[in-house]
Amino acid sequence: MLNQLAAQTEMNIEHQIDILSESRFVFETEVNAINLVKDALDDSFVRIVELISKCTGKVIVTGMGKPGHVSRKIAATMSSLGTSSFFLHPAEALHGDLGMISPNDIVIAISYSGESEEVTRILPNIKIIGSTLIGISGNQNSSLIKYSDYSFVFPKFKEACAMNLAPTSSTTVEMVLGDALAVCLSKIYGFHEHNYAMYHPAGSLGKKLLIKVKDIMHAGDKNAVVGAGTKLKDAIIEMSTKAIGIINIVNELHELVGVFTDGDLRRTFTKEVNVFDLSVDDVMAKTPLYIGSEMLAVDALKMMKDNNISALPIVKDNKLVGTIRVNDILGVGIII
Fold it and tell me: Beta partners for 63?
């Protein structure tokens, strides 16, 4: 069966090509298009950026077909970098979704030809609603540009497609232009990594900048705690029950006075002592490292790594409130 499929595939290949050469041609063609657009950036682009930076509503990006996919990505990038934005499908807009647009919004319509039917059909209604329309096109004389309040027109360049038909170079430059818009706007807003983290809580950076030790610590009944003077055998039972690799020793005010780890336990058993005669006071580390509950989990992870330990007590207002382990932090996807 596999041999038949291979033979059929071979028969369907009408032209043998130099794959690497053709691939490099695509790269060169699209890079050339990007460079042409870069050199064509002018005051019209500056005005668009300044306009959007002062927008009191949302930025709505629309396009049909391949430019529609690009529009969706541009809206997503803007949103993640501080510009409230969403994608509007022009065909759905013709059937009620125009109601998502308000007068204080800005609509960015993308069509390389400037004559995409679904896009051009919604332009009059956008004007009636009172939104500001920005047209992005490669055709200065197109319906899109004529309807637009502001516009950016691409210089002429070739598509990477052998027939110069399929959207290739044009969608690439549309994407890059959208990235330029989003990045410029983020810098105008003073958008920084903490803002980015707020919009990306599930991402690596978001976790590093947002998750605090208090969010993932072992607290309450899940924390291993005994009072000062507790018999070591009873402390071992508590340590085994909670299974977090460390037990915290507190005084009558619930202040941390020491810690005892499973590593300390192994070392204790190597000594010629009767462990059943010992209390935790005899074996605990009396000046343990500890952290505050507001510390970022990533900083706690660094601290444990630097000190070659696997767990840290957490203190708030001089009271023990929990314990954090290396595995707790790694378990939520934070790595360094």
Answer: 110
Residue 111 tokens, joined = 């069509």
In the three-class reduction of DSSP (H, G, I as helix; E, B as strand; rest coil), residue 233 is classed as: helix
Q: What is the CATH number of domain 213-331?
A: 3.10.580.10
Query: How is 163-215 classified by DSSP, letter by letter?
Result: TS-SSSHHHHHHHHHHHHHHHHHHHHHT--HHHHHHH-TTSHHHHHHH-BHHH
Q: How far apart are CA 126 and CA 123, in angstroms?
A: 5
Beta-carbon-side half-sphere exposure of residue 216 (alpha carbons within 13 Å): 25
> Which fold is adopted by the domain 17-191?
Rossmann fold (3.40.50)
Side-chain half-sphere CA neighbours of 115 within 13 A: 5
**Which tokens is 77 given?**
């990038």
The pLDDT score that the predictor gives to residue 12 is 58
In contact, 119 and 64? CB cutoff 8 Å: yes
Read off the pLDDT band of 138 (50, 70, 90).
very high
* φ, ψ at 56 (rounded to 5°): -95, -10
Mean pLDDT of the residues in the chain: 93
Domain edges within the chain: 17-191, 213-331
pTM assigned to the model: 0.74
The Cα–Cα gap between 24 and 310 comes to 50
Alpha helix positions (H), the chain: 2-12, 19-40, 43-53, 66-80, 90-93, 117-129, 143-147, 169-189, 193-199, 204-210, 213-216, 232-242, 262-269, 280-283, 297-306, 326-331
304: number of Cβ within 10 Å: 19
Return the closest-CA partner of residue 200 out of 211, 214, 212, 188: 211
